[in-house]
Design brief:
eleven-stranded antiparallel beta sheet; two-stranded antiparallel ribbon; 17 helices
Length: about 450
Amino acid sequence: MLAVDMELYMQSHDQHDSGKPSDQSLLTQTAAAEELTARTHAERAPDGQVFGEVEQDTPPTNRVSNKYNPGFFRAFRWGVDSLYLSFSGELHSQQETDLKKFKLLAQSQLIQDQALAQMSLGSHLFEVKDKGAGLFPYVLEDNAFRIQLSRATAKSMPMAYVKISSEYLTHKPVEEVVQDLRSVLNELGVIDYMPKVSRIDLFVDFVSSVDMESWDRHDWVTRANDINQYSVGGEFSGWTVGLGGTVAARLYNKSLEIAKSKKLYLLPLWNEAGWKEDDDGDVWRLEFQFKRDILSQFDVQSLSACMSNLNGLWSYATTEWLKLTQPNPDDQNRSRWPIHPLWACLATVDFETNGGALSRTFSPERVPSDRRLYDHGFSVISSFMAREGITDFYQGIEAFQFALYNHINNRAMNDGAYFDLYVEERIAAKARKFNSILNKLGVDDGSGDADEYRKQSDGE
């Protein structure tokens, strides 16, 4: 079937160039359009099966190879991009007492108090936020998880609502990530073993020779109401369909987004899959977001059921909820328009196959990259050197260090604190945000240092 689509696509371009389609190509186009229409309008269950008449030429699930005609379309990675889970259970009373204390510290006006708003759970060091989220009064976050916790007395609420980071999902299979999450939540309370999925995002990263701005918004046939297109710095960046609904789609330039966000962890994974930036150009991503209501409708809200039916969700999204078509001006019924060959490629990605290599390294810390730190540091030092008329780098470093010490020392004196403690508390505040150091500032070990610290920080 896909071979027919590709041949049809090439024929249509040849016809456009010549200005005169052949009779045979028109017959081929008509037959292909009828077959694709029948295929995409067959009623499907969440597991990808077709209810009713069984297709003869292709299996009733999206199992077609992703590797045909690599010049037109190549998929590099696919799988779960975002996962939101809710766990029933009950928060331990002592943990809630600690959470209240840490939340109050986070709300303090004193930096040294804010730095102590941390919780160490398993292999994770979480920042405790100063505010809750909706009905969840406590929020913990690191680079792996954002955990929202309800009160121990909130019997009708899930104990925990958790967002798993996209980066962590590139490092481990979903099952292993969730097992790590369970170990964290087990320290906080008593939880049900199997969580429910509140939202799941599925994606495909790919390159294609198709211009993603080459079609009109009317070429999208969808159950959604809203279709929008975007640009960044005058460059077309992608499409969104149905944002805010129970199902939503984004087709966007992932390379462009990474250049802006500086989240570079995907680049080596694309390279490992065969992507070469100079030859292949930008990587695009098609992403579907499925929320609780649609998952409940398909009875795939439990984690095990959802993970067993990824192909069915993808099939529903790409054949029932949304289609990219090639307009037929002679047919006013848009639902009968032939499927765009690019969409046929995307719709048949198999989520039961290996979606690409996993990243070898991951840290739950939210630390800035070397590149960001050093580029920013060099920019500051070079600006200082230019201002001071210094051209020798080592002389500039020495002069900058001396000037910086004097500046920080003056600020510490103005705040009534010693230089070392002033620096220490600022480092501690950054460490809390970065999840990198478990701070012990202000903890009285019996030596009286804590009281002395408080007096210095308060200017006494």
